[in-house]
Design brief:
The protein has helices spanning 64-75, 92-95, 101-109, 138-157, 187-195, 213-218, 267-285, 311-322, 338-352, 391-406, 423-433, 435-441, 463-470; strands at residues 4-6, 32-35, 83-85, 163-166, 202-206, 225-232, 256-261, 289-293, 328-331, 416-418. It is α/β, with parallel strands linked by helices. The protein starts with a strand and ends in a 5-residue tail after the last helix. Strands 3-2-4-9-8-5-6-7 form an eight-stranded parallel sheet, sandwiched between helices. Strands 1-10 form a two-stranded antiparallel ribbon. 31% of the residues lie in helices and 9% in strands. The chain is built from 13 helices and ten strands. Mean pLDDT is 86; it is low at 1-20, 416-424, 433-449, 455-465 and 467-475.
Length: 475
């Protein structure tokens, strides 16, 4: 049976014989593909206005972190152990596979020059403002990072790699109809839609400190994608969603799993919780492919974060998922203390390659001064925030999630056949049929503006200032 996909026949949620998950070749290093466009780090969200002007440090989201990451990857020699691709930009037609046409048209045309004239009356319609500003090159920026995620997904579908990496992707807050939380195009949703053309079941895992609301909303009514998000949850903390009672609806009921945490969770508790929950989900859902969003704002000392995770603990979650030997797409996400983001994603690249790295950063890096004063891969990131997660809290949380898993009727089944013509039309038709249900179940209907955090836990060591000085000179 070649090029399996799914028929349009109605499915009931019944236990049936399932195709086995697709595993990476055993007893060998995985074949890893790395997707990076050198221009993606040259964009800039601006100097900051409104809530981001208080400390004169500019907008927290800084694409320059991608240049820092790639520089460390290259200077550690990791590129020698994987295939490196410079992917093409996503096309407008590809963005329209998920995003609404009026929103895509707006993204294509809006610029700083016409923002306050031609588009002044519609900025709020698409949720543009302090979080999601207009900046030079916005349209190209969106197509670059999205094109990389879609190319990575296509590489997995063609069995051209076992693991694909795109650190510029992972922008999980964007909705089909608007920008949200520094995210404009939801590359994750578009990549997953690519994967659904070939794979029966996609498991999405999110370890960003912020809830993966845009991805959850997109797949809230289907059992073909299980979404799992580990995040800080408070009603006032952005995006204000992600409690345990958000479980999906219709065919997707029980296939949205949320792990809401409090401030200050530490390495041991986080990794143990992650391993316990994810192992149970893997065994129950039997995914054919996994998408892992590795937002680095869950690290200790992140500018907008409130956890106490070290880079090693964050990377241990990646190691756990990799050890399952299931095809894997790894994406970036949040992360606002940019020298630690670069360290984290470089380390996790080494984890995916089964390659040990020295703690001393490469002296030949042209951006070495960003990592002063220690110049280490693993700086101390723990201790600024008290851990408010008690053992009893975590035990109860695990019990709630395991109870939800009990309601699953095993891995959902779909009848497999040769790849049919018109699959995109079918997916679009099914989306239209469930649009009313998605609207009813939508868990983030433009809430009041949530705070990103009570405090900014970055160390003020000129990290932001260097970005402002260097963003125009990125190789």
């Amino acid at each position: 049976m070649s090029s399996p996909t799914f028929t349009t026949e109605t499915r009931s949620r019944t236990t049936r014989s399932q195709p086995a998950p697709t595993f990476v070749r055993p007893h060998s290093r995985p074949h890893v593909a790395y997707f990076h466009n050198k221009d993606v780090g040259s964009f800039h969200y601006g100097v900051g206005t409104g809530v981001y002007d208080t400390k004169k440090t500019g907008h927290p989201m800084k694409p320059h972190r991608l240049t820092l990451t790639n520089d460390l990857v290259i200077n550690y020699g990791l590129h020698e152990h994987m295939e490196v691709y410079c992917p093409r930009m996503a096309t407008e037609a590809e963005l329209l596979e998920f995003h609404e046409s009026d929103y895509v048209e707006f993204l294509k045309k809006i610029t700083p020059a016409n923002r306050d004239t031609e588009f002044a009356d519609v900025l709020s319609n698409f949720n543009f403002g302090d979080d999601c500003p207009v900046f030079d090159g916005l349209w190209d920026f969106c197509r670059i990072y999205t094109g990389a995620s879609m190319a990575a997904a296509q590489k997995l579908c063609s069995k051209g790699a076992d693991i694909c990496i795109n650190w510029s992707g992972g922008l999980h807050h964007a909705k089909s109809y608007e920008a949200s939380g520094f995210c404009y195009v939801n590359d994750i949703v578009l990549a997953i839609r690519q994967l659904l053309r070939y794979y029966a079941r996609v498991l999405y895992i999110d370890i960003d400190i912020h809830h993966g609301d845009g991805v959850q909303e997109a797949f809230y009514t289907t059992d073909r994608v299980m979404t799992v998000s580990f995040h800080k949850y408070e009603p006032e903390f952005f995006p204000g969603t992600g409690d345990t009672n958000e479980i999906g609806s219709e065919l997707g009921k029980y296939y949205s799993i949320n792990v809401p945490l409090k401030n200050g969770i530490d390495d041991e508790n986080y990794v143990n919780l992650f391993k316990q929950i994810m192992t149970a989900i893997r065994d129950r859902y039997q995914p054919n492919v996994i998408v892992l969003q590795c937002g680095a704002d869950s690290l200790g000392l992140d500018r907008l974060g409130a956890f106490n995770l070290s880079i090693r603990a964050h990377g241990e979650c990646v190691r756990i998922i990799k050890s399952w030997q299931i095809p894997l797409l790894v994406l970036g996400g949040g992360g606002y203390t940019i020298h630690n983001v670069a360290r984290c994603w470089t380390y996790e690249t080494s984890v995916l390659l089964d390659t040990e790295l020295p703690n001393e950063l490469p002296k030949q890096s042209k951006y070495l001064d960003f990592f002063e004063p220690d110049f280490k891969l693993h700086p101390h990131l723990v201790g600024r925030v008290d851990n408010q997660n008690t053992k009893a809290d975590l035990k109860r949380l695990t019990e709630i999630i395991f109870e939800q898993l009990r309601y699953l009727d095993g891995a959902p089944g779909v009848q497999m056949q040769e790849f049919p013509d018109g699959i995109l039309e079918y997916l679009q038709e099914r989306d239209e049929e469930t649009s009313d249900a998605r609207e009813d179940q939508r868990v983030n209907k433009r809430p009041k503006r949530n705070k990103w955090n009570d405090n900014e836990y970055f160390d003020g060591n000129s990290d932001q200032e260097k970005d402002e000085q260097n963003f125009m000179d990125l190789d």
